[in-house]
Design goal:
Largest sheet: 6 strands, mixed
Number of helices: 6
Structural class: alpha/beta
Strand order of the largest sheet: 3-2-4-1-5-6
Number of strands: 6
Distance between the termini: 27 Å
CATH topology: Rossmann fold
CATH class: Alpha Beta
CATH architecture: 3-Layer(aba) Sandwich
Strand content: 15-25%
Helix content: 25-40%
Amino acid sequence: MTVRVSLIAPALTAGLRAAAFDDAGPVEPPPAGLGPLRLAASVRVVSSPSGRCRATAEALGVTAASPEPALAGCAMGRWRGRRLDQLTAEEPESVAAWLTDPGAAPHGGESLRELRARVGRWLDELGGAESVCVFAEPDVIRAAVAHALGAPEEVFWRLDVRPLHRVELSGRAGRWNLRLGAPLS
């Protein structure tokens, strides 16, 4: 049976604008003309546990999003709340390792390899003829797409996930198709 997964990136926040490892703070309002998201009654709605993803769902009129721990953004350890430009100035070797080695976790949190494995397990455990709408952090969406396509780990940083855009996957474990991002409408 085919599973359909619609992954929606959160609205902008001050943290996203500043390239900070922070998932809190108020989301910017959806652009004019973007009304409530219309979902079929049969669609299961889940969200990353982050405040940014939950607030985006609410801003789009979706109040029934269940938090899904497996879809949490990458655990950034001691870098949480810090900006990438600050860290690059203070710890250039650590940031370089994190950006080039998917197994590196110099911040003491989770590596990108571990994030991809966690998100991939969740994706592969979906079953039946299910439709799922997911409000997820950009790194979770990158991990899901890379996993679904069986892409090499290095592709993670080559995937651009725009705020309030959707990426759709359809298929099942071991065989996924990708519909490239589209603006919400």
